[in-house]
Structure formats: structure tokens, C-alpha cells
Amino acid sequence: MTLPDYTEYDTRLAAYAVIVEPRDGVEHLLLALWKEGRARRWTLPGGGVELRESVEDGVIREVREESGYDVALDGLLGLDTRVFEPVQRRSGSDRHLKAVRILYRAHVVGGELTQEIDATTEEARWVPLVEVRRLPRVQLVDVAVRLHRSDAGR
């Protein structure tokens, strides 16, 4: 199989926040419920970076939109890439998509937990880290949990 040249596929730059807080002595991860048609899966707060904004500003904006929280970034946690086949794309495009996803450690500095209205996410929730694996979730959540655990062990 011949892979497409870089000019023959789309790239999407996105940034996500990995926000873990102790609550009642248990680590909780902030997640957002992503909706795609009838499907609902948990993801990290974050998303696409707009053309004229920095990656850092993009993730801060996305967290605010999806959760109601203002956050400060604590540093780069990791990078994940994934290739989507044309049949996997919601847009109906006949081009492959390379998703470049930047994950930041972050913490809440203000705001309050709210729900996004008329958007791609419909709920934000603190979930005990040990319960995340039981949820219907996107693959990026597993990447974030693995990076968090490896970062915390340093």
C-alpha cells in the first residue's frame, strides 16, 4: 500500500489539558463527554487550535468552553499522533487525517464547573482516576492516564 504524500492528507493540531486533583483523598481526572451522533464517549477537555492562536491559548480556551474552569498550564506532558482513514472521518472527506495532539499538565485557577451548550461536548465531570478505565472513552484518555502516571513516578 502506498501512503499519501504530506500534501495529500489533512493535519489537525489540537491541545488538551490533563487536570488531576485530589478529592476526598482520591485522584480525580477532569473529563468532558464528547458526542458524535448518538455515540457518547469521554475525552479530555481541549480541542482544535485556531489558526491565529498559540497552542497554549487554544487549550486554555477549550477548557474554559467545555468545563467552565480557568486553568494554568504546568508544562508539556506529552504528544500523541493518530492517523484516521477517510472512512473514519465525520466530515465525509476522502482524505486521510493526521491528528497531532499536545497534552499539557494543568490545574484549575478559577471558574466553576458548568456544561457547554450546543457544542461537541455536553458534560464535564471529575472522575476518580481508578474508574476511568470503566468508562466509554476515546483512546486519548488512556494516553493521558499513562503519561500522568509515568510523570507522577518521576
How does CATH name the architecture? Alpha-Beta Complex
SSE topology string: EEEEEHEEEH
Q: What can be said about the biggest beta sheet? A: 4 strands, mixed
| Alpha-carbon distance between the two ends | 41 Å
Counting structural domains, the number is 1
Ranges where pLDDT stays below 50 over 5 or more residues in a row are none
The number of distinct helices, counting runs of at least 4 residues, comes to 2
Strand tally: 8
CATH class identity = Alpha Beta
Question: In one word, what is the shape?
Answer: globular
Q: Name the CATH superfamily assignment.
A: Nucleoside Triphosphate Pyrophosphohydrolase
Mean pLDDT: 91
| Relative strand content | over 45%
CATH topology term: Nucleoside Triphosphate Pyrophosphohydrolase
